[in-house]
Amino acid sequence: MTEETGRYPLRLEGDGVPMVRFQKVTKRYGPLVVLDELDLDVAPGEMVTIIGPSGSGKTTVLRMLMTLETIDGGVIYVDGEPLTHMVRNQGLVPANSAHTRRMRSKIGMCFQHFNLFPHMTALGNCMEGPVQVLKLSRKEAEERSMELLEMVGMADKRDEHPSRLSGGQQQRVAIARALAMRPRIMLFDEVTSALDPEVISEVTSVIRRLVSTHNLTMLMVTHQMGFAREISDRVCFFFNGSIEEQGPPAELFEAPGRERTRQFLNAVLEAN
Amino acid sequence: MIEWQWGLVWELAPRFVDATGKTLFAAGGGYGIAVVLGLVFLAMQRVPLPAVRVATREFVELIRSTPLLLQIFFVYYVGPQFGLILAPWTAGLIAIGVHYGAYLSEVYRGGIESVPKGQWEAARAINLPTVTAYRRIVLPQALPPAIAGMGNYLVGIFKDTPMLSVIGVAELMHTATTIGAESYRYLEPYTMVGAIFLAISLPAAFCVNAFEKWVRRKLGMAK
What we know:
The complex is a heterodimer.
Chain A: E1 20-29, E2 32-42, E3 47-51, H1 58-65, E4 73-78, E5 81-82, E6 85-88, E7 91-94, H2 97-104, E8 107-110, H3 122-132, H4 138-151, H5 167-179, E9 185-189, H6 200-213, E10 217-221, H7 225-231, E11 234-239, E12 242-247, H8 249-254, H9 259-271
Parallel strand pairs in A: 3-10, 3-11, 8-9, 9-10
Antiparallel strand pairs in A: 1-2, 1-4, 4-5, 6-7, 11-12
Helix pairs in contact in A: 3-4, 3-5, 4-5, 5-6
Chain B: H1 6-44, H2 50-65, H3 68-78, H4 88-113, H5 117-125, H6 130-160, H7 172-183, H8 187-218
Helix pairs in contact in B: 1-4, 1-6, 1-7, 1-8, 2-4, 3-4, 4-6, 5-6, 6-8, 7-8
């Protein structure tokens, strides 16, 4: 690993350091190459949406950033520092858990199936990280959590357990839970895919508000093409583990330059 | 025809009350050891040292694949040949505790594995350290499904205490056999043993069920 990572910078410095950089990142499951030497930069405050057919590696990008997946090649930089490596003797070596946890604290994630803690209330879910990880007092954690539950319109359900909430409500609590850790990067992994059509807008309107009022860097994987087009600064079309085409949403959706992009967009349009 | 003698039943009652107490102590003590040992076996199968994991795994399999009676004999009769001399009570509690500890570690493992992977991922996404994730997120959710299995083995250990009679622990079975040898009456003593086991097992199973429901409700995870 050390030898192989010799050609990567130890950290990114100077003007215009991206909030996220994937540099020749590879991910394999056995013989299957999921990501093939991926290069991707995300600027601070940018909203990047990833679209593409299933199996194209788009969810893997988010899961690697959240350190839920290991990385088989290349380096990911977050805020200029390597995410899954650290600097030792002028080289990059696999990160220890202290480094990983420090880096992970910059990132929050929302999942397709919400993954709320079922034995805790909506408020309890939001307070868990601030109390256990950030070591806030219960009072401070509750204030911070209530502010966020307010923002996602779930303050009145603070004492309900997830089993008594609808999918849209659970996802909004999950967004508040992630934000309670004050991440600088938010990852949304198909957050509307498991929702009934009539509640999708509850969640998209929360994300829309985040985009307009927070200075978060966001990466989103979605099948909601209309939503992606409306709020993204940039859209990346993934195919077979690499970026086939990327650009501003108007450009990519109106005038895709690649045949595969056209085929994919047509297929999605037909399905709707 | 042998006739049922109520007189004998009343006469024997005090000895059976005493023996019931000893049986409950054996079951309770053995279970206490098993609950703790089960956690130890579980933890040792999850440490980052492969040798410890494999050795524990094999030991648990060995215990589960051989009869309890053999294990009792091993501790009580083979132990002394290696200088380990134990009283019947001590040997019995150790054997039964280790035996059921192996089974309980599997129950715990099943409970932990029933917690969806997404719960681990959510715990990691809010940056909980592994130990905290176990304590706050995974173990509370692993508990309700484990309670049913733990309850089954509580009743199971109670029903297995008669095996301790073979090394001379004066529990119910041992008492009934002694009485039979003294009086040549077997019908009443053994029937009484059966009745006592039934009278304790049935309510215990019911209580376990009620307890599981209560825990689920407490955790807000009612089905």
